[in-house]
Amino acid sequence: MKIAVVGTGYVGLVSGTCFAETGVDVTCVDIDENKVEKMQNGVVPIYEPGLELLFHRNIEQGRLHFTTSLEEGIKDAEVIFLALPTPPGADGAADLKYVLQVADQLGHILDHYAVIVDKSTVPVGTGEKVQAAIAANAKVDFDVVSNPEFLREGVAVDDFMKPDRVVIGSTSEKAAKIMDRLYHPLVRSGNPIIHMDLRSAELTKYAANSFLATKITFMNEIANMCELLGADVDLVRKGIGTDSRIGKRFLFAGIGYGGSCFPKDVSALAMSAGEVDYDFRILKAVMDVNHGQKTKLISKVSQYFDGDLKGKKIALWGLAFKPETDDIREAPALYNIEALLEAGAKVVAYDPEAMENVQGVLGDKITFAKDAYTALEGADALMIMTEWQLFRTPNFEKIRTSLNNPAIFDGRNLYDVNDMRQQGFYYVSIGREV
Ligand code: UGA
Fold first, then answer.
1. In the prediction, which pLDDT does 94 show?
2. 38 is annotated as contributing to ligand binding
3. Residue whose CA is closest, atom 1 of ligand 1?
4. Which residues are involved in binding NAD(+) (predicted)?
5. pTM of the model
6. What pLDDT shows up at residue 47?
7. CA dist., res. 146 & res. 196, Å (int)
């Protein structure tokens, strides 16, 4: 089987590489010549655990190719994935220009039946627009399918190879059969391929991400209540998570959700609700609460320093929006840095992967440390922004002797509250003020 993946961003590259690993011949197409050349030379353009191994193996075995030519890329491809960017436009709605441009080009050059798959997260109704854009010039038969992606950064390869489910939105039986054949190796464990219409598949993606963002936000509100009521959110989490109707996952309170997906998708769903005159009130509350949650620790830091952060040096552990990624989009750390700098504090940060990206955005507004402990030297407090594994069992003695004050503000609830207090730390976390 031969397929093409147009767009080698996060989703495109992971999908292309993983399909190649199942034995399919994959050509990835991207307009960025520089990036394509690098990939042809074996350079993986993103940080994603496990990807590099598969990437190299499949290039070496001749199943994974890269080109800047759409025409060359789609030659004989039975399935053509569109994994193109859909950035929020000026009005906040997803900008479909890249998707529709490629659809238009496909209409001109497609010379055989193919299934065109929307893998990008796109508003309901996009599949029909893609269909129309291709049909305007198409000389051959084709089908458009929505196949939303549910992979998480940091565990993307695993999520792709063992999906909880695969959603296929199409009313064409021919297309559905081809998609089943392509995904068959990934659902051998019995997880379902769920077939539905185009629009329902498109909405499924937004519903999934918005539901998860709501689940996290609900727990963040419970955490805020715990602080006021003298309860412990971690115990409440265990108490409710064992109810199979609620589930254990995505119940961790913290400093808000970030990343390139949840914030964008929650806002896009709220907006498309508005377009059909529906007031999606829960989503508005979710966005509002999450915004406040991101900088929740700052007031506690400020309180510790009697309201004056001027000249204080704050060490930050973690910059990425979550562990195992260098992605800093909508990262809570950035909002905290902004608030700290505004209050006149100095920031020194350490992150195992994301420092280069932050330097690109903030330049020399903050300083970067070569490792976690160097960041603490002469700092007045430590704030933990990302739950990287290496922060979970640190050398507390070293933390205490490096910091000017033994104060830790933990946005990810990494340590035991009583233990920290026994060790003499001033320790503040989220929703555990028992
Ligand atoms: C998310 C979804 O989980 C994927 O299923 C989806 O495919 C992806 O968006 C997408 O639309 O492309 P991702 O953004 O990589 O994946 O990250 P998550 O692991 O879902 O975390 C999102 C945010 O929620 C992070 O900021 C994380 O710190 C936060 N979070 C997560 C919590 O605060 N508490 C939790 O219990 C779980």
1. 82
2. no
3. 152
4. 30, 35, 86, 121, 153, 264, 329
5. 0.94
6. 86
7. 9
